[in-house]
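explain this chain.
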Amino acid sequence: MVRGIPVDPTLVSVVFKLFSEKNKNLSAVGRVMGKNHKWVKNVIESYDPETKKRKVVKPKGRPRITSGEQDAEMLGLVQAKRELSAAKIAVETGLAHRTLLNQLREFKTRRSKAVLDELTQEHKDNRVFWCSFQREQLLENPTLFHDVGFSDEDRSTCTVVRSR
């Protein structure tokens, strides 16, 4: 019985039938099933004979630090207030900074502070100019970006590789 992977219900019913109805011991049931006696003992202890499903067991390991409400509040703050840093969100939610980062990693959420500065007209003009210049260069020479240059700083040599 591999931890975490449930046993097929038909196998569970066969184990219970052999153990209780046929009065076989754990080792004999294990030989019939092709398993050892510990596997049979785990099946008998972990599964319900009527439903053939696992009995509910208390989860092992350290209990969670945050509740579901705290998790929802934390995720809401992260998504709503992008200008706040993770340290400030941790203070607002009452959590340690490291706990906040661990919980965000568990939820596969990234914490990135948004850049809230607006682009100036000069920035916008520079971007448009650069794009139009690159487009003109590419229209004049369609193979402009086909060549790749490699340099070896140790020997000061340069190699050009043509892709097509």
Remarks:
- The two ends are 57 Å apart (CA to CA).
